[in-house]
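Entry:
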Amino acid sequence: MDRHLATKVLLVDDEEAFVQLLARRLATRGMKVAAVTCGEEAVAMVDKRIFDVAVIDLSMPGIDGIETLKQIKAKKPEIEVLMLTGHATVAGGIEAMKQGARDFLQKPVELEELLEKIKTARQSRLTALHRKADAEMQEILKRKSW
């Protein structure tokens, strides 16, 4: 797969061994993956690179997953976010969805399920970006008198 067309994924989890293993597994499936171990690094990373999807652990020291989600969405609302947790609660899932998460998954997640969620999230992001570009083009065309 052309690396420019590869799905760009940001993984955020304070369990370093887990996040590195998951990053390798996604990379072997053609994804371009960046892995960080805290919310602060994730928020800084979205300023430097373009991502289609962020997979964020809910429970982390420092800024937790919900706060990381809020800050990423404030900077780059077009990034699709999947929340991942080993400590799922209904309240946590509801709050994540209110803050703009696309989905809330329980650890350990099956790799095939995660891949499908990432694929769906990326497609949704691309559709939204195409709509935005089309609307901008229509606005430009309305202003021109060709």
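The helical segments are 16-27, 39-48, 65-75, 90-98, 111-143.
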